[in-house]
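ok, trying the design again with the full structure, not the truncated one.
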């Protein structure tokens, strides 16, 4: 029998390991779950011990990864495993790393649409003003119907966002590294160049994974292709965008607005421009976080461990 450890769960996730889900884990072997992130590498190693499999919620340091005595698989409970586990070290040590693709396609897409609506209808600002005793009915807003949405990236989340935007009557264009007629038909988009997506869209929404190729990809040159009346939405990763230039454009009126769920520094620093700009709607990297998505992520992670020890690995990152 194998030994599985979840060294850094939160209480909400811990509460999910009952009934059938817990039985599935116990069918593989013994299972230890710890609530709360380890405060030190030594504590992390103590919790993991001689585990054959690690379910990982947050970041694992290189020192911990190098020192794991028996781990054969790390099942990361999210998409961006490369941002939490050093894949090069894992590969060298022969440790398989998996992620949980598709768990929050609907969840993040809906959050993306919510940010679009909040920006286009000035919901956050109107809420603040009304609570303060104002009655400002003159703030400019606009319909989504008939507007062009430009998607940068068309994976599961981008594709679902396109489908929802089509239901609003938007025209949807997209850029992806691997465009196909099938992808276009499923999502209801027209593929264009990256420059065209940025320059022709009323709203630009980012849906790329963070990796060596995408870090800093949306630079000042690309951002300045956008129309001054356009808005920028990011539910992907803050590090993909030149945030300094984005803030400058928003503050100067060079860009109309933004809806941001992710940032290069999280939590968002107290002195960050995004916290004081009226034309920016910010949420605390919570676009993925619903009960439905949490259930899905745990089920996919457990399935990855089951498949690995059955000899047919799935969801493999490296």
């Amino acid at each position: 029998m194998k030994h599985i450890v979840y060294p850094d769960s939160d209480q909400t996730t811990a509460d999910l390991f009952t009934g059938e889900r817990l039985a599935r884990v116990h069918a593989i072997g013994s299972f230890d779950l710890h609530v709360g992130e380890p405060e030190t590498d030594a504590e992390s190693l103590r919790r993991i011990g001689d585990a054959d499999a690690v379910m990982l919620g947050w970041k694992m340091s290189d020192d911990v990864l190098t020192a794991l005595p028996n781990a054969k698989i790390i099942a990361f409970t999210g998409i961006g495993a490369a941002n939490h586990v050093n894949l090069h070290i894992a590969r060298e040590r022969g440790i398989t790393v998996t992620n949980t693709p598709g768990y929050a396609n609907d969840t993040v897409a809906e959050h993306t649409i919510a940010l679009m609506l909040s920006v286009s209808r000035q919901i956050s600002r109107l809420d603040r003003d009304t609570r303060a005793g104002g009655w400002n009915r003159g703030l400019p807003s606009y319909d989504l119907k008939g507007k062009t949405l430009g998607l940068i990236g068309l994976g599961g989340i981008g594709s679902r966002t396109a489908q929802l935007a089509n239901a609003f009557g938007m025209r949807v264009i997209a850029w992806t590294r691997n465009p196909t007629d099938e992808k276009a038909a499923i999502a209801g988009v027209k593929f264009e160049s990256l420059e065209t997506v940025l320059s022709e869209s009323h709203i630009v929404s980012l849906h790329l994974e963070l990796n060596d190729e995408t870090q800093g990809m949306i630079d000042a040159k690309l951002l300045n292709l956008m129309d001054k009346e356009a808005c920028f939405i990011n539910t992907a990763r803050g590090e993909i965008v030149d945030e300094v230039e984005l803030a400058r454009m928003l503050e100067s009126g060079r860009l109309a607005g933004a809806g941001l769920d992710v940032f290069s520094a999280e939590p968002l620093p107290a002195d960050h421009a995004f916290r004081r700009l009226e034309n920016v709607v910010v949420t605390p990297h919570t676009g993925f976080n619903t009960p439905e998505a949490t259930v899905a992520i745990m089920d996919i992670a457990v399935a990855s461990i089951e498949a690995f020890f059955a000899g047919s690995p799935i969801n493999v990152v490296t």
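Keeping the full-length input from now on. The CA atoms of residues 258 and 280 lie 5 Å apart.
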